[in-house]
Amino acid sequence: MIMILSIVHLVLVSVILLAPTFLYKNRSRRMIHFYQRMSYQEYCRMFYARILFLTVILFHFAYYWMKPGQYGVMASTILVFYLFSTKRTLSLVRGIRNSRGVMVFVFTLALALLFTPHMYSFGVTLGYILLAAVFYPSRKLEEGKHERKDFPNYKDFQDDLIDNYYS
Fold this sequence. Notes:
This protein has helices at about 1-25, 30-40, 40-65, 70-80, 85-95, 100-115, 120-135, 140-145, 155-165. It has 9 helices and no strands.
């Protein structure tokens, strides 16, 4: 059981490193669909928040069963309880996404907590929240989603969507 949880833990931590490497500003058909749905459908953003919550809970489960004596899990559990509400999760992710200074602060804090004894789980939790904030639509796209633009072809639409999604 511990070996399986160790593998799950390794996969969950590697997602934080590999997802931005392969998916950030990716122009594949699946990522374009992801950008469209995240930009224009509130239900997809709520589902995104639920996936973040479930991923963090799965990480906490695996980490607690691997190292039950770590009291740092209790500190990050407070953040997990905050993520239980979808609207609060979306407001937290939106707040981090729309402020570059807050994003840098959360990154620095997560990196510092990874190397602080007993705070590893809190650092990984912040890393997952930061990862969710990176792939959340920008304020510019959310504000401009009601205006209609005519594009001569689908390629121009994709370029405009990706440029506005990460701006």
